[in-house]
Amino acid sequence: GAVWGFVDWGIAGAVFAWLYNLINK
Q1: Distance CA 11, CA 25 (A)
Q2: Has this prediction a pTM greater than 0.70?
Q3: Across the chain, which distance is largest between two alpha carbons, in Å?
């Protein structure tokens, strides 16, 4: 979100890392 942008990026980063690991096993 606009105010909680840093939280949004933290969640997005965690999800991206999880998906990356899932796809690149």
Answers
A1: 21
A2: no
A3: 35
Residue listed under structure tokens 């690149």: 24
C-alpha distance from residue 9 to each of 12, 13, 18, 25 (Å) = 5, 6, 14, 24
Alpha helices, DSSP H only, in the chain? 5-23
Q: Model confidence at 2, in pLDDT bands (50, 70, 90)?
A: low
Could you identify the residue written with the tokens 């979100």? Answer: 1
**In this structure, are residues 1 and 8 in contact, taking their beta carbons and an 8 Å threshold?**
yes
- In this predicted model, what pLDDT tens digit does every residue of 7-18 receive, in sequence order? 888 888 899 999
